[in-house]
What does this fold into?
Amino acid sequence: MAKYPKIQDQVQEELSRVIGSRQVQVEDRKNLPFTDAVIHETQRLASIIPVTSHRTSQDVTFQGHFIKKGTTVFPLMSSVLHDESEWENPHSFHPAHFLDKDGKFIKRDAFMPFSAGRRACPGEGLARMELFIFFTSLLQNFRFTPPPGVSEDELDLTPRMGLTLNPSPHKLCAVSCI
Ligand code: HEM
It folds into this structure.
């Protein structure tokens, strides 16, 4: 959020208008469309698990390609989360991907950071709840800014490559707003 001060303003405005200073609850999500869109867009753009791996349990023909039983396949999550035919701005942070023209939250079929099918992430419900409660509680209480002398543009969001994509370490200021 430190990199996107205007978006942070909009999230904090929505939180203060809808929730005020009480503790956020999971049921509040439906009344916080902008905040929800920001969380979804963060997961989409960050694509923290860019690749999964599976082995075919039977011969299969997929999009005209024959794949023999027992073949290891690596589904590329980023190919969906950053698909140029699905997203208006696939490589930018653009919460409007998840909002209609009236500012209501919209689900997008290509949003699948937890993968899809029988072996999709079983922790999805817990993870989504935690992301919502942590993110809203932090933004209710703190304003995030770059450290003195650093501009928003200088904050580098290039991830550290590994099995998962992690943020590179950088300093931030969290200024209490209560
Ligand atoms: C933002 C947080 C998380 C993301 C983005 C995420 C994403 C994923 C993805 C993409 C997979 C691979 C699915 C596939 O192979 O097709 C996966 C698998 C898995 N996740 Fe998560 N996950 C998250 C949090 C969690 C949490 C909190 C738990 C447990 C409490 C969890 C437990 C698991 C397990 C056990 C698997 C393996 C499932 C299997 O192989 O059948 N995940 N996750």
